[in-house]
Amino acid sequence: MKVTYLSHSGFLLEAETANFIFDYYQGELPRLEPEKPLVVFVSHGHADHYNRKIYQWLRYYPKARYILPKDIPTRRLIAEEEAQGIPLGRAVIQLRKNTTQELLLFNGCPLTVTTLKSTDAGVAYLIEYEGSTIYHAGDLNLWYWSGETRQYNENMTRAFLREMEKLRGIRIDLAFIPLDPRLGVHSMDGPRLFLEYTTCKWVFPMHMWGNYDIIAEFIHKYPQYQEQLAVITHEGQVFQCY
Predict the structure, then answer these.
(1) Is 102 helix (H, G, I), strand (E, B) or coil?
(2) Whose CB among 13, 126, 142, 148 lies 3.0–4.6 Å from 20's, allowing a Cys bridge?
(3) pTM over 0.90
(4) Number of H helices and number of E strands within the chain?
(5) H or E stretch including 158?
């Protein structure tokens, strides 16, 4: 599989028989095969995770499908896009939190999608496709803010650990998780706990707001995870994952 870092929390994953895009809001998308199934995941509606430009891709990739959480309104969206000649109604699938759904792609291959409840907005996705398991956290993270109350941070910690318990024991091939420098001394808490709870081959930090140095800082503090962590340095960077 090939992974391209698009920007912020946005990634393109190219598998042998399908392509997957997560949380696109900006960045250059490479040319893809028009007839290859494309699945576009949106974790939530925040502007740094979601750009309505993604629906224009249906003009070039007729086998695209969009997976969104239920808290993104779609009725008006679909009407506006279809007024422009984009047949979005048949392409959108919305999932509730804490559900599992199996979808059949145009190539006849099943895709199993499980949603987790975010500690912010929307959902995180756990995906099974052709023997691989992929996790994209969206904004599911331990948002422990020094300026918040003790009660808030305790509740946040409990909520995050509840979701991590759902991942315990699952073998994950590729994971995309927030490593947000705005959290200061607590920026590494969420990623560290994720790695403690899971067994993961490749881990891609995201939501770094351009501060890629935090990856080296994380590895320096937790060298036991060095082999798992992808070192991102710029938008458009490509990784070959085997």
Answers:
(1) strand
(2) 13
(3) yes
(4) 4, 13
(5) helix 150-167
CB 174 within 8 A of CB 153: no
Write the CA distances from 75 to 40, 41, 80, 141, integer angstroms. 18, 18, 9, 29
The whole-angstrom separation of Cα 74 and Cα 93 is 10
Backbone Cα Rg of the chain: 17
Give the number of other Cβ atoms within 10 Å of residue 231's Cβ. 13
Report which DSSP code applies to 30: P
CB 114 within 8 A of CB 45: no
Give the three-class secondary structure for 82: helix
Position 163, amino acid: E
Pairing of strands 100-104, 110-117: antiparallel
Strand partners, 109: none
Residue 203 DSSP SS3: strand
Pairwise CA distance, residues 181 & 209, whole Å: 8
